[in-house]
Amino acid sequence: MKQQTFTILKPDTVMRRNAGAIISRLEQEGFDILGAKRLHLTVEQARAFYAVHKDRPFYNSLVEFMTSGPVWVMALERDNAVEYLRRVMGATDSQKAEKGTIRAQFGTNIERNAIHGSDSPENARIEIGFFFATSEILR
Ligand code: IDP
Ligand code: MG
User: Fold this and answer.
1) What is the domain partition of the chain in residue ranges?
2) Are 61 and 11 in contact (CB under 8 A)?
3) How much of the chain exceeds pLDDT 90, in percent?
4) Does 116 participate in catalysis according to the annotation?
5) Which atom of ligand 1 is nearest to the CA of 119?
6) Which residue, 41, 72, 109, 125, could crosslink 9 as a Cys pair with Cβ 3.0–4.6 Å?
């Protein structure tokens, strides 16, 4: 069943000019890109987007990283998109991510890990809505 998910190509990816390679990988994996924007997140946006982590010790550093340069935010569609993207991304810590995953190939460490992916269909809907109007999602 076709499903939507949400991804961010993080500032480390854009800075290192890996965005094209990761988009190419996502297309090879069967994702359709329904919407994409290049944005420089404000501190307020990053804090709100990661509000679930606000009490974690890494929160301030994460917000600083996510606002350190431009990102690509994208709405993706594929069969089983949420779970499939999480598998292709690999573990949160790039140094522990399985060989062949995006984070293993393009990430640096547990914070600078190249890519975000929604962790549930419900959060995918919320996260797409955080950055896109319904009219900006083109199927
Ligand atoms: P996820 O991106 O694999 O879903 P989460 O636990 O939701 O991982 O964490 C959100 C983001 O916060 C991670 O992608 C990473 O950039 C950062 N992060 C997570 N855990 C740590 C940590 O222990 N130290 C530093 N940064 C972290
Ligand atoms: Mg997460």
Assistant:
1) 2-136
2) no
3) 100
4) yes
5) 4
6) 72
